[in-house]
Task: structure prediction
Amino acid sequence: MSVLASIIAILSGAANPLQSGANAELNKQLASPLWAGIIVYATGLLGLLAAQLFLRHTFPNASRIHGVSTWAWLGGLISIVSTLAGLTLAQRLGAGVFTGLTVTASLATSMLLDQLGWAGFRQHSASPARILGCALMVAGLWIVSKT
Result:
């Protein structure tokens, strides 16, 4: 695992509660989770378009687009669930509990996807150590939620 990739992943994880807080505050001030979500995705699209001005990636050709698996197009739709959850639940649950719940659920789901080799991931068996790691996440989440 590269050090740079690890640093980027850590920064991405650190950004999650900040994003949830900003989105929740937007929802609170607009009093509309749907419009807040639309604004979140619109500003995200603007950010990606701005990045494109610098990165200049070429648009995929038609054969590449037609070759994409049907399920792979669902990522944006699936992300709406986590965005709406952050908009409506992050401030109510608190950053620690909300992030703990989402990260723990992500880890458990990731282990299932790894075990089954689904969603394009290579198969990695759910070893006793990996299962223990998930159990410790659940225990940690319980401790965080009780204090």
